[in-house]
Amino acid sequence: MADHLLKNVRYSVLDLATVLDGFTAADTFKTSLELAKQSENLGYTRYWFAEHHNMAGVASSATAVLIGYIAGGTHSIRVGSGGIMLPNHAPLIVAEQFGTLASLYPNRIDLGLGRAPGTDQVTAMAIRGENFNAVHNFPRDIDKLQQFFSADNYRASVRAIPGEGLDIPIWILGSSTDSARLAAEKGLPYAFASHFAPTYFEHAISIYRNNFKPSEFLQEPYVMACVNVVAADTDAEAERLSSSVKRMFLGVITGKRELLKPAVEDMDVYWDQLEKEAVQQMLYYSFIGSPKTIKESLEAFVAKHGVNEIMSTSHIYDHQAKLLSNKIFAGLFKD
Fold it and tell me: What Pfam families has UniProt attached to this entry (predicted)?
């Protein structure tokens, strides 16, 4: 039964455009395109970038630009945002940008939306300027976006050109229960950030499913869970490779963010027990190991939560090891 469930689950990629220690953002973009091309060939459904700002190790700040770069270098895989942080943008600008992308790459662009700024408060102030203290209404801004994309908007005094009349799927992203209620109310697909905020995952998807209202966009609830993945030929090698993502999350917890570091043999050199427990809690929904190990845990995850799609994010320093992990993970959905 679990095998059957796994074969019917879509699988996708979240790329944070992580900058490696000793490399540059330009290097990151080249390897992202290579990973996207491989993902397309392996049957991944979509390839998303997430908007972040003022983070030395994350180069996906100009999210729409990167989406265009990846879409232009691939042929069929869907490319989109996971997500665009709506407080940072006027809905009209988002509609125009994604309308342009959807015009260039028809039926391939996704628009995932988040309500957080994707950065610290000082940077958020720099982004929003005089609008920083203005009340931000996430549901209202989504309504505005939907109106701009609507073919019926052609008589309005403000129009999104291009964008108007185009089919650009909107997703609600979240790491809490608030977003679940909103996605349910609007009848939109829901993507949960369980790769770094596992605490409310079960509660949020339950709220979403129980309160879902069918819409013109979606007739039944659709849940995507984002998880961390580090796959290798052996459990031991996967554990070693996972030290890079553990050090990255340690930097988040301690406020000492750095570029992604190479794998190390012994993490105990870098953290104390409390830090270790904090990192492990954040990485609760992580699949680390050999194909057999990950398949068993992945089947159990799908059987328990019934997700429609799994989006993997892999912070692996060695690019060839990352490509292998991506290949192994895709294979689990086909066996």
Answer: Bac_luciferase
Look up tokens 């194909």; give the residue. 291
Domains and CATH numbers, the chain: 2-332 (3.20.20.30)
Tokens of 333: 């959905």
Contacts 24+ apart (CB under 8 A), 88-91: 88/51, 88/53, 88/117, 88/118, 88/124, 88/127, 88/128, 91/141, 91/144, 91/145, 91/148
- Residue 205's SS3 state is helix
State the Cα–Cα distance between residues 335 and 333, nearest whole angstrom. 6
Helix, strand and coil content of the chain, in percent to the nearest 5, comes to 50, 15, 35
Determine contact, residues 101/109, Cβ cutoff 8 Å. yes
pLDDT band at 120 (very low <50, low <70, confident <90, very high): low
DSSP codes of every residue in 238-280: HHHHTHHHHHHHHHHHHT---SBPPP-S-GGGT--HHHHHHHH
Residue 246 φ/ψ, nearest 5 degrees: -65, -40
Pairing of strands 309-313, 223-231: parallel
CA dihedral of 287, 289, 293, 297, whole degrees rounded to 10: -10
274 — pLDDT class (breaks 50, 70, 90): very high
Q: Which residue has the higher pLDDT, 137 or 237?
A: 237
Which two structure tokens, joined as six digits, stand for 115? 């309500």
The H or E element containing residue 34 is helix 25-41
Name the band, by pLDDT with cuts 50, 70 and 90, for residue 257.
confident
Q: What's 326's DSSP letter? A: H
Residues, the chain, total?
335
Q: How far apart are the first and last CA of the chain?
A: 13
Q: How far apart (Å, rounded) are the C-alpha atoms in residues 37 and 56? A: 25
Pick left, alpha or beta for residue 259 (phi over 0 → left; psi -120 to 50 → alpha; otherwise beta): beta
